[in-house]
């Protein structure tokens, strides 16, 4: 059965003659989001219910998750309508569920989760020229304003007005159908799977971190955390020519996985009985660091946990004049950073916020088999079992690395749906 689509604006049906300024578009999006936030049902004219067609996973302000339904709408002039084929479960999805938010990003009403996604184009707006029906694509989930000074400088990942999929009030990708701004939808080649297309998002996080950290050929690197981001960082650091590479974690099984994933790496099991400097000394021994031999210490530490004790350890691990790149998401405030050690050693403590201009390079990396991340996808759930997917992913005892939610259904649109 073909989905019945609904006009998302009051524009003339032949919207190719209509020019909508970006400022008006942003106001329209804000009004739409406000309407979504104010009620759990569709109470405004541009949306109609399609209960049997578009299942989705929603997080609530009460910190629960549930399967629900979402209306399907016709794409605006600069959008595409997508059939979401695969969405990876991210740690941020679990944070929004369990903690009700991440830092200032709070869940104030029902919101569809998900942002690591790939899919197929079902329909295109009248102004879209680079995509066509049937294209296989990966979704860059953030839609910046395009007008602020940060966007104008190319730092659109820092835009304060970004509309990011799966962050309240903007609907995410754990649903069958979703409209998304075409500019932020990237074609993927036929030799890439839906799973690989969805992995471009976490890969992009790592690529941005590596670029900002200045990781270089033949220089030592340490990765803190053998979760999905840490393991992707491990593979990317190896592909970038970093050597030697050490990865740390508190869980032996994850380190075993890391060693199997990138056999050339060394592993370090964090000793919970030691403080930050004690564990740092253990890591440094793997690089042959001895008194008076600071040069052999790692120049870059990619901190992929966001845990305060791990960030502190990273500060003591890095070589004098080196860099600690914090990729992981942690508490809003950390109080115990070794400030004077960082200062006296001129160690750069740097951070990233998501990514910018990484999808084309990421597609080249995965389609060219420069990095193979397939082993990271340990579990798959159908869309109808999205709740079970998040529950499974949230329990470390299950041993999952990357859980993905897939929709195997093949769908097409009938022209009658637009009449």
Shape: globular
| Helical percentage | 25-40%
The pLDDT mean sits at: 89
The tally of beta strands, per DSSP, is: 20
Round the Cα radius of gyration to an integer and report it.
Answer: 22 Å
Q: In this structure, how is the largest beta sheet organized?
A: 7 strands, mixed
Cα(first) to Cα(last) distance is 16 Å
Count of runs of 4 or more consecutive helical residues: 11
How much of the sequence lies in strands comes to 15-25%
- Give the class from helix and strand content and strand pairing: alpha/beta
Q: Uncertain spans, ≥5 residues at pLDDT below 50?
A: 1-28, 30-51
Question: Describe it for me?
Answer:
- The structure is a single chain.
- The chain starts with 21 loop residues before the first helix and ends in a 13-residue tail after the last strand.
- By secondary structure, the chain is α/β, with parallel strands linked by helices.
- Helix 8 links the parallel strand 16 and strand 17.
- The strands form five sheets. Strands 3, 7, 8, 11, 12, 19 and 20 form a seven-stranded mixed sheet that branches. Strands 15-14-13-16-17-18 form a six-stranded parallel sheet, with helices on both faces. Strands 2-1-6 form a three-stranded antiparallel sheet, with no helix packed on it.
- The chain is built from eleven helices and 20 strands.
Give a concise summary.
The protein is an alpha/beta fold.
